[in-house]
Amino acid sequence: MTRRGLLRTGAAGFATAALGLGAGRATAQTTAAALQLSWTHSVQFAGSYIAQDRGFWRDGGLDVSLLQGGPNAPVEPPVVAGTALVGISAADYTAAAVEQGAPFKILGVAMQKNPFVIASLPANPVNTPADLVGKRIGMALANTPVLQALCTLNGVDISTIEIIPTQYSPQPLLTNEVDCLLCWATDLPVAMAIEGIEAVTMLMADHGYALHSQTYIATTDSLANRRAELVALMRGEVAGWNAYRTDTDAATALTLAMFPDAGLDLATQTLQAQRQVPLMFSDLTDANGFGWWTDETVAANIETLALLGRNVPPDLWDRSILEEVHAA
Q: What confidence score (pLDDT) does residue 29 get?
């Protein structure tokens, strides 16, 4: 796994149908739509669960199915096919799909800060990119471009870092096989904290790695022909995530109630839910609303994407749906 690997534990299969409380057949008063999640069920998507459970979508005339993702269930195909109205992806995945001809636009940005961190232990910490020099870093080789981008942005020679391929687990760090790990802030550091080990986490977003994550994508056809449904779906997402921020414990409880067979651990999910908040909410969202971005943040994303070998224009991002949602 290159990301999101640990906290999926126990989720059975890769759903092609709706899951969750409050879901049901569309009635005469609602229009059926689907939201394709980027990974298996966990509090990573708790705002969507709240939107479904509290009827935020139903009140907007939608009956939304939540389609589970996973390593064998990519986001982009069902959105292109129209099976899902909206998918939750990331800017690099979307950019790659667009280069292959997919007609996507990014409608909203759930994670204002990219969740990638360099995790280390207090006895041998990595606090800045310069601290990586001479270190052994455990990571999936597929993420080498991510590390290279961080190094380029911060003037670090990647050849001074020893890359050691590892499974997505904290064990190599805990057994001194590596000095640090490239991972998400909301998974391996959370797993260590549950075991009483507090990791030092250097958030790459704080050092120039600007890459929008947990982004909402739709096709240009949907923007042209299903605009009212997109507004209703995103309005429900905004309401759900705002409620999540107010009470992450309640959001965690709902997640476990909706997916009792997913093997989710209460303590782990509770801590993950808390640690997501500063990634998803910021001064920018406080001023403009959940999911917002600016021309400046898009420019920073384009710079990072170029370092990852993806060249995209600014109009990959379309804020018109969010503007309508927040204007209301």
A: 84
CA 184/CA 272 separation, integer angstroms: 11
**Does the pLDDT of residue 18 top 90, yes or no?**
no
User: Distance from CA of residue 324 to its chain's centroid?
Assistant: 23
Burial-class residue 52 by CB neighbours within 10 Å (0-12, 13-18, 19+). Answer: buried
- pLDDT of residue 69 exceeding 80, the answer is yes
Instruction: Give the DSSP H or E segment for 33.
Output: strand 31-36
Neighbours of 326 (CB within 10 A): 16
Alpha carbons 139 and 147: distance in angstroms, whole number: 9
* pLDDT tens digits, one per residue of 102-118: 999 999 999 999 999 99
Three-state DSSP state, 85:
coil
Write out the H or E segment, with its range, that includes residue 56: helix 56-59
Question: From the DSSP assignment, how many helices (H) and strands (E) are in the chain?
Answer: 14, 10
Q: Is 328 exposed, middle or buried (0-12, 13-18, 19+ CB in 10 A)?
A: exposed
How many angstroms separate the CA atoms of 312 and 325, rounded?
26
